[in-house]
């Protein structure tokens, strides 16, 4: 069965996932394994907090490693600096202006790279979906649960995105 490559991500986003995987594999897991081994050697495991916590932490690390493996194997890496497009697509950094004239930048990134406080929004988010396929000067209507918000696209850039 072929792996579906639907996890769009920037090169820096992929590196971040790979770095976390490497840290868990080479640093955290060996440290916790050593603690569990030591705790198991001192006797009664049923009342040994180091042993109990260590086993729990190993399960958490292994679960995270499986998740990271799945995400990394499904990546479709898109480098925004190599995109030459007039329309908004994955990897775009878009400047939007609201009805009061305030501007805000949003970069469209993968779901593993989201940081809304820094304007990094998932390509699956309502604001990104509203922008996809639009050009500079187009109006964008973002549907939110309480009300809709209207913006105008001021600028579209394809630059290196810090995740």
Protein described:
There is one protein chain. By secondary structure, the protein is α/β, with parallel strands linked by helices. The strands form two sheets. It has a five-stranded mixed sheet. It has a two-stranded parallel sheet with strand order 1-2. The mean pLDDT is 94.
SSE arrangement:
Elements: E1 7-9, H1 11-41, H2 49-73, E2 75-77, E3 93-98, E4 103-109, E5 120-122, H3 126-131, E6 139-143, E7 148-157
Parallel strand pairs: 1-2, 4-5
Antiparallel strand pairs: 3-4, 3-7, 6-7
Helix pairs in contact: 1-2
Structural class: alpha/beta
**Cα-based radius of gyration, to the nearest Å:** 22 Å
Number of strands: 7
The percentage of residues in β strands lies in: 15-25%
- The whole-number mean of residue pLDDT values reads 94
Low-confidence stretches: none
Largest sheet: 5 strands, mixed
Adjacency order of strands in the biggest sheet: 5-4-3-7-6
Shape: elongated
Number of helices: 3
Give the H and E element order.
EHHEEEEHEE
Percent range of helical residues: 25-40%
Could you give a quick summary of the protein structure above?
The chain has 163 residues and is α/β, with parallel strands linked by helices.
Structural descriptors:
single chain, 163 residues, alpha/beta
């Amino acid at each position: 069965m072929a792996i579906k490559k639907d996890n769009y991500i920037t090169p820096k986003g992929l590196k971040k996932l790979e770095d976390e995987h490497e840290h868990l594999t080479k640093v955290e897991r060996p440290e916790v394994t050593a603690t569990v081994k030591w705790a198991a050697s001192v006797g009664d495991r049923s009342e040994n907090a180091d042993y109990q916590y260590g086993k729990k932490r190993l399960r958490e690390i292994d679960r995270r490693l499986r998740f990271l493996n799945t995400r990394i194997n499904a990546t479709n890496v898109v480098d925004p600096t190599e995109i030459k497009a007039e329309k908004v697509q994955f990897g775009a950094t878009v400047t939007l202006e609201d009805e009061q004239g305030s501007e805000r930048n949003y970069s469209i990134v993968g779901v593993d790279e989201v940081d809304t406080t820094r304007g990094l929004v998932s390509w699956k988010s309502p604001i990104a979906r509203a922008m996809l396929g639009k050009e500079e000067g187009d109006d964008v209507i973002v549907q939110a649960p309480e009300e809709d918000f209207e913006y105008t696209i001021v600028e579209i850039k394809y630059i290196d995105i810090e995740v």
